[in-house]
Design a protein that fits this description.
With 237 residues, this protein is mainly α. It folds into two domains: 127 residues, no CATH class; 89 residues, Arc Repressor Mutant, subunit A. Helices cover 62% and strands 2% of the residues. It has a two-stranded antiparallel sheet. β1 and β2 form a beta hairpin. The radius of gyration is 21 Å and the shape is elongated. The N and C termini lie far apart (47 Å).
Length: 237
């Protein structure tokens, strides 16, 4: 009966989707380079973005293959709606945004952790929601989140009093951003994205640091999710 037909054969596997996207990127860059000089000059940014996106996509493909070879991704997972949706988010990011290593790594790690089904199951909507939020994060915001999550896992701060000035000092040092003002800029946008708790007191001098050094529950869950990523080098040992 028609209902018994295996629907998986009508879908592409993840590796094929990535390979087709890489081909399209290459053809797009070649086509731009072969166009009229004026059009080529206007498209330099697209060429750079295409080349960079292709490099990142090749990295994703290698890691995906490695995960499958090690059995960390179940064979049928690649045909799930969750996989297609999350993969689309990464491809959309590489096509429309300006990809850099920090931002790409965050999405790649989130995607691969989702694929292992260790932090969620294939029916969960959370990975897709996390992916959409992470796509909006700038490199600076990611650095602040990573630094905050790193401190949150330690114990030394839990018995101390922290104001906003103190928190900024710690995160400025841990994030490598060097300038307190830079951290403060990213702090405010992360508050708007509900990943950091807002400042307290009328003069904004206070902060509520417990239990995750100002990470909201959402911010902590996303950081915890991504932190469970295991790089290829660990799997090849």
């Amino acid at each position: 009966m028609a209902e018994d037909i295996d629907q998986k054969r009508f879908k592409q596997d993840t590796n094929s989707i990535i390979a087709d996207t890489l081909t399209n990127l290459a053809e797009g860059v070649t086509g731009i380079a072969a166009s009229k000089k004026q059009e080529w000059v206007l498209s330099i940014g697209h060429i750079v973005q295409g080349v960079r996106g292709g490099q990142f996509l090749s990295i994703l493909q290698r890691e995906w293959d490695s995960y499958k070879e090690k059995g960390r991704i179940k064979e049928d997972y690649q045909f799930t709606d969750q996989n297609y949706t999350c993969l689309h988010e990464i491809l959309d990011f590489l096509e429309k945004d300006i990809p850099d290593e920090t931002r790409f790594n965050l999405l790649k790690q989130l995607f691969l952790v989702t694929s292992t089904e260790t932090m969620s199951n294939r029916d969960s909507i959370l990975p897709q929601q996390y992916m959409k939020i992470c796509k909006t994060l700038t490199t600076g915001e990611i650095l602040v989140l990573n630094a905050t999550y790193g401190v949150a896992k330690e114990d030394w701060w839990k018995d101390q009093h922290f104001g906003a000035h103190d928190w900024l000092g710690v995160i400025t040092e841990k994030s490598g951003l060097a300038q307190r003002e830079l951290v403060e800029i990213h702090e405010r946008t992360l508050i708007n994205k509900k990943l950091l708790s807002p400042r307290t007191l009328s003069d904004e001098s206070g902060v509520r640091i417990s239990p995750f050094f100002r990470l909201t529950d959402l911010g902590h869950k996303i950081c915890e999710f991504v932190a469970s990523y295991e790089p290829i080098r660990d799997q090849q040992e």
